Amino acid sequence: MDIHKEAMKTERMDTRARQDQIVEAALAIVGAQGVRAMTIERVARLVGLAPSALYRHFASKADLLMAVLNRISGEFSQALDKARTEPDALSALHGLLMGLIRNVLEHQSIPRILFSDEIDHAFPKQKERLLFTIRFFLENLAEIIRSGQGNGIIRPELDPVDIALAFVGTFQSTALMYHLNNGRFDMIHQADKNFRLFCLAVENEHSQKKDRRPHEMA
To answer: Which among 117, 79, 77, 110 has a CA at the least distance from the CA of 178?
Structure first.
C-alpha cells in the first residue's frame, strides 16, 4: 500500500477503535520509512484526520510511539502464550520463532523500532519501555527453557538465560538482515538454518529428535 496515496476512511468510531486505527497508521509509516518519519501530521493525514483531532488521542509523538511499543509488546505476549500450548520446550521455541518472523513480515516496523537510533537517543521513556519488553520476553523464554531442562529435552548444564539470549540471536540476526536489505531477504530460510544450529547446541542428546523447521509451521 502506498501510504501517501491511500488514506483510511474517517467514519465515526469510538475512542478505542480510533486509537487502534491511529496506531496501525503509525506502524505503517514506521514500517515504510522509519521512526523519524512518523510525525503527528503524517499519521493524521493517513487516517484522514486533522492533526488537531489526532492530538485529542495522543498529545505528542512520544505518546503515540509509546502506544506503538505497547502494541508490539502485546503481540510478543500473544506469541509467548501461543508457544506455551506446544507439547515440549523446543517445539514451543520453534513456534515462537515462527510467530516472531510472521510479525516482522506483517509489520516491517518491528525491526525498524528494534534498531532505531531515534528511540535510543531522543525518547528515553520509550527506550525504557522497549527494554522492559525485551527483558520480559527473555524472562519468559528462560521459563520455557527451564521446563525443557526439567523434562530432559534441553541440556540441564546450560544456563537458561544464556540459552534465551542465544535463541533471541536466531531471530535478531535474521530480522537485521531483513531490515538492512529492505525486505529482500528470505527470513524463513535463514530462520530454518538458525534454529537447526540452535537445536544442535542446546538439545539433550538423549531426547527424541524432531524435525522442527520453521517453514513447516502453520
So the answer is: 110
End-to-end C-alpha distance for the chain, whole angstroms: 25
Cβ atoms 41, 79 nearer than 8 A: no
- CA 204 to the chain's CA centroid: 28
| Long-range contacts (CB closer than 8 Å, 24 or more residues apart) made by 37-42 | 38/64, 38/65, 38/68, 40/64
pTM of the model: 0.82
| Rounded distance between C-alpha atoms, residue 110 and residue 155, angstroms | 31
Q: How far apart are CA 21 and CA 81, in angstroms?
A: 25
pLDDT, tens digit (0-9, with 9 covering 90-100), for 168-210: 999 988 988 988 888 899 999 999 899 999 999 999 987 755 5
| pLDDT bucket at 134, cuts 50 / 70 / 90 | very high
Helix axes 15-33, 61-83, angle to 10 degrees: 90
Q: Which amino acid is at 144?
A: I
Alpha-helical regions (H) of the chain: 15-33, 40-47, 51-54, 61-83, 89-106, 109-114, 117-122, 124-150, 160-180, 187-202
How far lies 112's CA from each of 173, 202, 216, in Å?
A: 13, 30, 27
Give how far Cα 207 sits from Cα of 89, 135, 212, Å.
12, 29, 14
Q: Let me know: does 46 contact 29? Beta carbons within 8 Å.
A: yes
